[in-house]
């Protein structure tokens, strides 16, 4: 199984987002207003996986329209994101990093994607959906879709970016995996499992890719870097701090397993695009 780490743009967020270790409306308000000198640039990763059952994509990154010329464009951002989210993320998508551009560079089209897995509905993970029309399947945990009706998620997850995509909602089931023992076994063979890691959102999934005795864990936004689980410091953007810490404890336990080949976070500045083979 080849796991290609794709950089699909970046965000320039308050330095309290990756390691704030508290979530509250007041903290979010401060993050929106953070001056540039109190911000950090973080990558936005998606993952293209050559799996025995087909070509998989995990998340989609930003869309070209948010950064038409590949540089930060405040007016273009505000066309796609409401003002507070635009101020929170300050996104940029350099030329060649949009998901369809990266597929084309590999000689692929969206129709070659057998399954697209969405970890959650925040815009940096789903804005690129518009670029992968024709993918055979797009899946999302039902729990994430269900809670998108809640006011806090309506504010975080602009519906225009994903509501018209043909998303298939899959149900978490009882499982030995995860902080809440809730997971989706995508192909029924344990090779791809969506594991509920709540805290950042309620329904968010981490993804375990397993082959032979090895596995790679994609944490989505349950962690922003290994420091989160090594020091039990939760990201400062989320919904439920206690659930974030519980999810981090589970990630730490997985990272310590002998079969763990890598643990990858969606916004870890310590990771460069590369390919992992398991
Ligand atoms: Zn994210």
Can you tag this structure with a few keywords?
Metallo-beta-lactamase, Chain A, seven-stranded mixed sheet, binds zinc ion, alpha/beta, single chain, globular, 278 residues, 13 strands, six-stranded mixed sheet
Task: Describe the structure concisely.
This protein has 278 residues and is α/β, with parallel strands linked by helices. The chain has one domain: Metallo-beta-lactamase, Chain A.
How would you characterize this protein structure?
The protein has a 7-stranded mixed β-sheet with strand order 6-5-4-3-2-1-13. A 6-stranded mixed β-sheet has the order 7-8-9-10-11-12, covered by helices on one side. The longest helix is centred in the C-terminal third of the chain and has 15 residues, at 241-255. It is built from 10 helices and 13 strands. It is 25% helix and 26% strand. It is of the alpha/beta class. The protein has one domain: Metallo-beta-lactamase, Chain A. The N and C termini lie close together (5 Å). The structure holds zinc ion. Zinc ion binds at residues 122, 124-125, 221, 266-267. Zinc ion (ZN) is lined by residues 122, 124-125, 221, 266-267.
